[in-house]
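pinned: reference chain
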Amino acid sequence: MRAVDALMECLKAEGVDVVFGLPGGANLPTYDAFYDAGIRHILVRHEAGGGHAAEGYAKATGKVGVALGTSGPGATNLVTPICDAMMDSVPTVFITGQVRTELLGTDGFQEADTIGITMPVVKHSFMIRHPLEIPRSVHEAFHIARTGRPGPVVIDIPMDLSRADIPYEPVSDVRLPGYQPTTDGNQKQIRLAAKALANARRPVLYVGGGVVHANAAEELTELAMFDRLPVTCTVMALGAFPAPHEQWLGMLGMHGTRTANYAMDEADLIVAIGARFDDRITGKLSEFAPRAKFIHIDIDPAEISKNVPAHIPIVGDAKNILPRLTAEYRSLEPDPQRLEAWWTRIKGWQQRHPLAFEDSSDAEIKPQYMIKALYEATGGDAIVTSDVGQHQMWAAQYYDFPRPRRWINSGGLGTMGFGLPAAMGAKVGCPDQQVVCIAGDGSVQMNMQELATCSQEGIAIKVFIMNNGYLGMVRQWQELFWDKRYSAVDMGRFPDFVKLAEAYGATGMRLTDKHTLVEGMREALATEGPVMCDVRVTAEENVYPMIPAGQAARDMVG
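pinned: its structure tokens
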């Protein structure tokens, strides 16, 4: 059969039921194979939208997301989603077309060095040199993408090789001698960690997105609830521990709660699970958690001690390690009374510094109120995607996520334009779930063209634009740190989002009164097909609390 038909058989063998892509000259053979393959293909309007949709699909389902692009600009348009998937450890496979082999290196039409361009931002990549390589490369790509620390894999296929006839034999085993992720964790280290926990007087469980990727939320909750351990999550891990809950300190980091950040600052033991101590969490590294010892559990050995030295490192899969840590911890019969003083301290912070905002006295919609209204309208039962900016942080602060894979956002790369196509991918992966995108008026315009995809494909996402007329987070920084010298942050009055939604075949709504906001949101959620709501909010509201960049947690403002 043709190599591209073998490619389709490989995708089906990997359980792929949908791909997101855009055809072009170099991947025309692949698209011809789709004609008979029986795999759903969703025609996106821009490759970046397809890449982010594949991410949204992967984050919502836990399965590998697949996106396609042609050579040259098709591939370069995928670079941002590839980098985004690398930063947030999203299991994805990107299949790109390439010019014919005799044109490689000649600057042929739509030629780009896709492997070279993406090399720094992929987990692995395959440049196909012979058509017989295609089947095994596809299976190896999926294996690499989903195992160990998940991530993006690129397969670049020259057009002439994709058309070649090959004798196809299904690949039944994938063995990569050079790639053997450690998953079990060292039992001696786990025992040491249990002893450290049993002796700690001020412990904190610091939970990252790795817990979600490992499907280890239950195991985390069991450990935390055995001895009433305080839990805080990064923006990528929200939902890994049920919120609200008496042991939940809220999100930590630059816009986390004072309680979570103060607890980290005063802790004597921090158990980092699937987290990487990035700068949004640590602030000034030299002053981060100065009293604490660190247990670091991560499947990626490169992350351990990268930013903060680990006293007890444990390399492995959180789903394997946490039950054994809990068992060892139980056997030590720790004294629960030792945490009383710590909880008294934590409750004092919670009472003095709750998440709060000054609501309007009239019909004006405060952005924080918008998030609380959306939580009420959805009953907290929705998959929520977000773009990047102030709205993302307010959503993380005020929308309580009861379980994992309900909160999908771009954390490490901070990609504006992520939210709408990610919602599209999440809805395709979870068609029976309500999927809501919280967007900013700046971010949403970066991949708004995918609303046409949603209308054409019947993908009924609901987009709520927090419209303050500004690039809000940049404006906030200019206000606080640049003497309010607003430069290139005013988005003006355009476009008319209601008319634009209608032009794309979606339903457009505008909500401007807080007294009818919940009712309006419920109407939007109940409307068939894709809906875009323009929610007008306070123009110059700031996200607080906030740790100024490069400062310590104890220096929070607002």
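why pinned: The chain is about 35% helix and 15% strand. The chain has three domains: 3-163, 187-352, 367-536.
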